[in-house]
Write a structure and sequence with these properties.
There is one protein chain. This protein is mainly α and 119 residues long. The protein has a single domain, classed as de novo design (two linked rop proteins) (Up-down Bundle), CATH 1.20.1440. Helix 1 packs antiparallel against helix 2 and helix 3 packs antiparallel against helix 4. The relative contact order is 0.16.
């Protein structure tokens, strides 16, 4: 099956799900984090499907791979930020299961796509 739009890519769809999930999680952060970690994390998660979409629209395999690498880097940034929140006193009682699961799935898909485009 040929993919005509980035919206047909499961990795993009899962990335969008991750955005929605992270925004719901960030709602539970203290108000003092509105412009701190919450803002950083939102930028990182939004960057993932955004870079997938932009790279797909650019056309070439090399450019697409580069944008997937950027998305993968944003995922690593978010993994780090999630770990920081887990270790903060106010983050210990938050439920990270859904965002962790989605992010892991997206990172695996990105890794596979990048490897496949490079070979």
């Amino acid at each position: 099956m040929e993919i005509h739009s980035y919206k047909e890519l499961i990795v993009w769809q899962k990335g969008i799900e991750g955005v929605i999930e992270l925004y719901a999680l960030a709602e539970q952060f203290p108000k003092s984090e509105l412009y701190g970690l919450a803002s950083q994390m939102k930028r990182a998660i939004v960057s993932i499907p955004s870079n997938i979409a932009e790279g797909r629209r650019r056309g070439g395999k090399k450019e697409f791979c580069q944008f997937l690498l950027i998305a993968y880097g944003s995922g690593a940034e978010l993994e780090t930020q999630l770990e920081i929140v887990r270790r903060l006193p106010w983050g210990r009682d938050l439920d990270f299961r859904k965002i962790d699961s989605l992010l892991l799935e997206v990172m695996r898909m990105l890794n596979k796509m990048i490897s496949s485009l490079k070979s």
